[in-house]
Amino acid sequence: MTRYRLHGSPDSANLVVRMMLEELEEVYDYLPVDRLTSQQKSPAYRKLNPQGLIPVLEVPGQDTPLFETGAILLFLSDRHAKLAPSEASPARGRFLKWLFYLSNTLHSDLRISFKLKRYLPDRSRHQLFSDTLIERIGAGFQLLEAELKTIGGPFLLGEAITCVDIYLAACVRWAQIYGNSGKWDLAETPRLRRLMETLEDRPALRLACKKEGIEGLPFTRPAPVSLPGVTG
């Protein structure tokens, strides 16, 4: 293997990795995973990720495929010395803090909100659970709004884009269109909206979205991808 191999499905977490690879201008192969047939649960796919989850990135020179979106972003930023502060930078701690906040908290809450019955079989409790998640997700975006105010932007860590901004863009997109969409309004966070507008102007991110079947304004006026298997 001489280049990256990204396994994914349209508008899944592989979108984040794909945007990262395009921003890095790295060559990669994309291997579609058919969620309609639960290909991600197949024995062959589980050899790549025993959890049966998307995405997986096969990396030249590594003895194991990578999974977990945050881990992949951190690996790529360190490997290419781009889209993240260096280990010696005073902003390194801030970078790690927000990267893992997105991975462990915000993205996790979003994922649960998309698949309530998977995490809570008792349907009679779904509304309360959903309302709690929506409140948590909204509070998370307000936290990021406050950070943008403190830093002064235009990006979450200041003047330069990082993979945290890329990850955040996908979370903002998904919060508006999947699961309990319509219950959080990007207009409530004007600084976050300006960041999304800035990211929509980046050719690499637009290209990644196009390759995922995402049209229009992917972060400020998102629409679901009309392809089989999306969010399945």
Description of the structure:
This protein has a domain at 92-202: Glutathione S-transferase Yfyf (Class Pi), Chain A, domain 2. 50% of the residues lie in helices and 6% in strands. It is built from nine helices and four strands. The protein has a four-stranded mixed beta sheet with strand order 2-1-3-4, with helices on one face. The protein is globular, with a radius of gyration of 17 Å.
List the helices and strands and how they pair.
Blueprint: E1 4-8, H1 14-24, E2 28-32, H2 43-46, E3 56-58, E4 66-67, H3 69-80, H4 92-114, H5 116-119, H6 126-151, H7 163-177, H8 190-200, H9 203-211
Concise overview:
The protein has 232 residues and is α+β, with helices and mostly antiparallel strands.
Q: What descriptors fit this protein?
A:
four-stranded mixed sheet, 50% helix, Glutathione S-transferase Yfyf (Class Pi), Chain A, domain 2, 9 helices, 4 strands, alpha+beta
- The CATH class label of the domain at 92-202 is Mainly Alpha
Q: State the shape.
A: globular
Give the helix tally.
9
Radius of gyration over C-alpha positions, nearest whole angstrom: 17 Å
Instruction: Note the main sheet.
Output: 4 strands, mixed
Q: What ranges have pLDDT less than 50 throughout 5 or more consecutive residues?
A: none
Compute the average pLDDT: 93
- Helical proportion, percent range: 40-55%
Would you report the number of β strands? 4
Give the strand order, joined by hyphens, for the main sheet. Answer: 2-1-3-4
